[in-house]
Amino acid sequence: MTRRLITILVTAFVIAALCSYLVVRIVGNRMTAPIVKTTTVVAAANDLPIGTIITVHDLGTTQIAGALPPGAITKASDAVGRGVISPIYKGEAILDSRLAAKGAGGGLAAVIPKGMRACAVRVDDVVGLAGFVTPGKTVDVLISGNPPGGRLTSNDPEVHTLLQDIKVLSAGTNIQKDANGKPEQVQVVNLLVTPKQAEKLSLASTQTHIQLVLRNPLDTKHDKLPNYALANLYAGGLIPKRPVYTGGRVRRPAAPPPFVMEVINGTSQSNTKFASSKGQP
């Protein structure tokens, strides 16, 4: 056997040994990799909308690898009988924060935070059936009508932004009686408000027309908006100041001061008043 052939065989043997060693190391590392521990938690067996009282048939299980999310429920008994306060979808792990407290029941009342109120507002079919007023959305509440207080121009309705950044709790239909006492279906939206805002809404719902305006939930800025009257749609500009009603008398806005010209003729002096360009003397 020649020397050259021996060299080639030795080189091939060394290369094969190195490749075998690398393969063994790679396969060995994969086989000895640590096994991630999984935990069985309670999950939704079907979609659970807000207000649902959970039963055993609504629950299933799912496996979560690694650390559990905060509030994960591992026992079905901890979820049965509690109300859903945030939508839970099929296969999703049920968290304690998505359920009402034990004994609080279900329905709309379980969703209302402490110190807040759910105020029902009747809206027209356009708002109710348009589909944008759904639970979880935020809206502004606009009112329109003829304000009291002796306006200078009659039958000139105004629009005013009563409330801003209000959360919608629920939307649907309700049965009320019309002017003839006959039952009819009306569109009703429940808004999450403070007690003071509930008083404003209650008064506005009986005395004015209410319109809901959808807004971006990330936009929480409250703007200072002036009232806008029907005449402004044609003339432009803001609403002129109205007379203030005080005890049966109408106090009109103070007139601007007149323009005074002083005339000196020799030793005599006199003052002449002229009407101001902004009003009457």
In round numbers, the mean pLDDT is 77
Radius of gyration: 37 Å
The major pleated sheet works out as: 6 strands, antiparallel
Tell me the span between the first and last alpha carbons.
131 Å
SSE series: HEEEHEEEHEEHEEEE
What is the total tally of β strands?
A: 12
Sum up the overall morphology in one term: elongated
- The helix count comes to 4
**What quaternary form is this?**
single chain
- How many discrete structural domains? 3
SS class? alpha+beta
Beta content comes to 25-35%
* Helix content class: 10-25%
Poorly predicted sequence stretches spanning 5 or more consecutive residues: none
What labels would you give this structure?
single chain; 281 residues; Type Iii Antifreeze Protein Isoform Hplc 12; 6-stranded antiparallel beta sheet; two-stranded antiparallel sheet; 12 strands; 32% strand
Describe the structure.
With 281 residues, this protein is of the alpha+beta class. The chain is 19% helix and 32% strand. Strands 3, 4, 5, 6, 7 and 8 form a 6-stranded antiparallel beta sheet that branches. Strands 1-2 form a two-stranded antiparallel ribbon. The model has no long low-confidence stretch (mean pLDDT 77).
State the gist of this model.
This protein has 281 residues and is of the alpha+beta class. It contains four helices and twelve strands; from the N terminus they run αβββαβββαββαββββ.
Please give the structural blueprint.
Elements: H1 3-31, E1 38-44, E2 59-65, E3 117-123, H2 125-130, E4 138-145, E5 158-177, E6 183-193, H3 195-207, E7 209-215, E8 228-229, H4 232-235, E9 244-246, E10 249-251, E11 259-265, E12 268-274
Antiparallel strand pairs: 1-2, 3-6, 4-5, 4-7, 5-6, 5-8, 9-10, 11-12
